[in-house]
Amino acid sequence: MEFALSPDQTLMQDSLRSALARASTLDAVRQVASKRFAWDATAWRTVCELGIPAILVPEEHGGLGLSLLDMALASEELGRVVAPVPFLGSCVIAPLALLYAGTPEQQARWFPAIANGESVVGVALAEAIGGAFDGAGLEVRDGKLYGSALFVLDGALANHYLVATRDRSLFWVDADGEGVEREALPALDSTRPFVKLHLAGAKAELLPNGNEGVLNRLRDAAWVMLAADVLGAGWAMIDKSVAYAHERRQFGRQIGSFQAVKHMCSEMAAEMEITRGLVWYAAYAFNNLPDESALCAAHAKSILGDAGNFVARTATEIHGGMGITDELGLHFWFKRIGTDRQLFGSPQQVRRHAAQLQSLI
Asked: Which residue, 47, 81, 146, 342, could crosslink 24 as a Cys pair with Cβ 3.0–4.6 Å?
């Protein structure tokens, strides 16, 4: 049996790669990342024109009604160019939350704006998915939300927020509503800024079908998307390293002619290439193999976390002192991979979860 992308998926990925390479250049990334809230309007417009926000939105609500595998291909290409645009929260987690936990009326109200990119949704699920943080957590009192949430995805310029409370309920919050305040949160990855969300008596609308099972599905989707992002960012670092090894000269020779550098490049490629099928299969399993989905997502997140870490470190070593300079910008990919590795659970935490799924501990 051959497991490969369909011709349409291959064409879509090629189109995404060429369009995003033009829209999200290193100069644009550098300029946007220097701001308090990183947001590349040009790249976001390209993302919307390519239909990425509509991929998981059902066709009856103006979307494309495609699968998580299609979205994983988009995630890979966004990671390849470290595009500073809202994606994981607004384009992936929020539509899935509406699909699984929202009512038909809520879906009809919010899906179209998400699909065409008019509405950006910040996602505050770090405490529910990744673990507890001191001083963080949301609760409902008298029908309103109180508390704070850390590491809110895509929250910088969000129109709405998807939040999870301590009792695992899901709520939809208007970003401009009374009692809602966002604060920039310093983070390693400047291409994907996080915010701290403060809610003080904020009005919120319950997604009535939200429960532990829905949160688990959102976590699995997030793990697969983060793995795909590492896959794209890792290959970008490999390509940059190979190109640099052909250009940089020492002792009158290209450094790529030295056996040690050849081995470093080949080891990176070998480490990363074998993960491609793992990411694709985990994304495929999400929609088609429910019994395998959770374990495949955990494997993808943990293995790509370690593989990406190896590639990021080795690529920087190949570049030598230039690898840590802003001139080359390699640090954007390095930090992106580092953030993907830790977000919603480190490889160690995710492996423990995989062991629990298999009753090994």
From this structure: 81
CATH number of 7-92+104-115: 1.10.540.10
Q: Which of 328, 325, 319, 313 is nearest to 256 (CA)?
A: 319
pLDDT of residue 278: 96
Q: What is the pLDDT of residue 37?
A: 67
For the residues of 90-147, what is the DSSP string, one character each? IIIIHHHHHHHHS-HHHHHHHHHHHHTTS--EEEE-HHHHT---TT-EEEEETTEEEE
| pLDDT at residue 58 in the model | 98
Signed CA dihedral, 134, 138, 139, 142: sign only: positive
Give the per-residue pLDDT at 133: 67
In angstroms, rounded to a whole number, what is the distance separating the alpha carbons of residues 330 and 61?
A: 40
Give the per-residue pLDDT at 38.
Answer: 65
Q: What is the CATH architecture assignment of 213-357? A: Up-down Bundle (1.20)
Q: Look up residue 176 and give its amino acid.
A: D
Residue reference for tokens 């193999």: 289
**What pLDDT does 127 receive?**
82
Q: How far is CA 61 from the centre of its chain?
A: 24
SS3 146: strand
Distance (Å, whole) CA 50 – CA 85: 13
Residue for token digits 């998981």? Answer: 56
Fold of 121-210: Butyryl-CoA Dehydrogenase, subunit A; domain 2 (2.40.110)
C-alpha neighbours within 13 Å on the C-beta side of residue 95: 32
The full set of domain ranges for the chain reads 7-92+104-115, 121-210, 213-357
- Which uninterrupted H or E stretch holds 163? strand 160-164
Euclidean distance between the first and final Cα of the chain, in Å?
Answer: 34
Q: How far apart are CA 70 and CA 279, in angstroms?
A: 12
- For residue 132, the model assigns a pLDDT of 63
Give residues with Cβ within 8 angstroms of 171, minimum separation 6. Answer: 140, 145, 162, 163, 164, 165, 204, 205, 206, 207
- Give the residue ranges of the chain where pLDDT is below 70: 1-2, 36-38, 130-135
